[in-house]
């Protein structure tokens, strides 16, 4: 039977999995497979897994339980292997890499920071700081129909938005990265200009959260941040 894989841990991890049920319509028991110094947390699965709410919650519940004792290497939702022996073989073949990765995330959790600019605050700031942008805007509002004016204003504003977003992104990284063991910059999506994952030591979470709170007080910049965590270290799995 195929097996669904939740995470890889060190063999010494207590894996207190009692009472948990796994993904799939049959809600199978969650169990472990050992190979050398490593352990995989798995459950049996009889069909293709789709991201249903109940299954996503079951996946996360297993990882939350593991995180309570020691940081695992989490696998993304939906990872399956043909059978137990395949899982053990992968653990054996990749043992050195998994052990190094586990050492790297030990005692840490992932936090994700996304940020976007408040468009109104951003535009007002550009018009206040750029005499050329302000002048173009006034000409347009006064009724000048020259089609070159909105084109030039749009290009000027777009360039300034890019510059300010780049500076704000660098400021966020500069403020938060020193409080993390590692960080990963993901491509932003939607209106966000930052999508940053940080590997934060659990004994340093207070300082990290204080630093983030300090950033959110800077409301005049128009930067709005969203913090998610603590999470399993998905972004730091090789």
UniProtKB/TrEMBL annotation:
Signal sequence, renumbered to the chain: none
Locations listed in the record: Gas vesicle
InterPro entries according to UniProt: GvpL/GvpF
GO CC terms: gas vesicle
Pfam (any one): GvpL_GvpF
Any GO BP annotation: gas vesicle organization
Keywords noted in UniProt: Gas vesicle
Record's protein name: Gas vesicle protein
């Amino acid at each position: 039977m195929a097996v669904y894989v939740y995470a890889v841990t060190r063999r010494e991890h207590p894996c207190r999995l009692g009472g948990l049920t796994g993904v799939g319509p049959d809600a199978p028991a969650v169990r472990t497979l050992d190979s050398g110094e490593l352990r995989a947390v798995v459950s049996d699965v009889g069909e293709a897994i789709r991201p249903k709410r109940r299954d996503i919650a079951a996946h996360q519940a297993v990882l939350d339980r593991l995180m309570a004792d020691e940081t695992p290497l989490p696998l993304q939702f939906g990872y399956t292997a043909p059978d137990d022996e395949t899982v053990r073989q992968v653990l054996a073949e990749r043992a050195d890499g998994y052990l190094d990765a586990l050492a790297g995330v030990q005692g840490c959790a992932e936090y994700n920071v996304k940020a976007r600019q408040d468009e109104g605050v951003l535009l007002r700031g550009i018009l206040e700081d750029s005499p050329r942008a302000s002048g173009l805007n006034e000409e347009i509002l006064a009724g000048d129909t020259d089609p070159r004016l909105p084109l030039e204003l749009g290009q000027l504003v777009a360039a300034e938005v890019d510059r300010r977003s780049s500076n704000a992104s660098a400021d966020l990284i500069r403020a938060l990265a020193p409080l993390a063991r590692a960080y990963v910059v993901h491509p932003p999506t939607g209106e966000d200009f930052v999508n940053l994952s940080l590997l934060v030591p659990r004994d340093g979470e207070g300082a990290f959260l204080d630093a983030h709170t300090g950033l959110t007080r800077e409301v005049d910049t128009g930067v709005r941040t969203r913090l998610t965590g603590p999470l399993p270290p998905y972004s730091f799995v090789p």
